[in-house]
Predict the 3D structure of the following.
Amino acid sequence: MTTLTPARISELLAMCEAATEGPWWTSGEELRMVIRDGSAMIVAVRHRIPASQHAANFKFIASARTALPEALREIGRLTISPTEREVWKQNVEGYMAERDAAQEALAKVTAERDEARMWRDSWANTAADNGAKLSTCEAERDALREVLSWYALDSTWRCEHHRTESTGFDLPSAGQTDAGTRARAALAKDPAP
């Protein structure tokens, strides 16, 4: 089979143009001739062809006059030159390189996203742990504040149960010598929330 190169297409089109103008038709029921449309010009005559083949041959000859040029023109329209082919090849190679670069960038961004998610989850766990620790510390602080508040009260330092029999005066205990001064100072440094 001959390859339909641009040169071969041009050769076949020239052959079609040199032939009698179409379209062509078969004549009569006996199919003895192929004639040109609208005239009595005989284009082909059946001669010494077996009867079993002449109908198909005449129909093919008549159809080929218009079908072949149409097919050749369509092939020519769809065929690209070597220069165009090279341009397309370079474009495709460029697109493939861009695709590869985009896939690489996507892989990098995906890895960065996954790492960011890992850190986010880690921080969330740390924050939850720290939140629990903070709640414990706040509860302890509140308990200590309550104790300090009790020590800061003046009424806490008036101790009637330390009365001695000999003097009849209240004697401060060893823990009462500051009369709540340190407790009040501690509370002033860390006011209640």
Notes: The radius of gyration is 54 Å. Strands lie at 24-26, 33-36, 42-45.
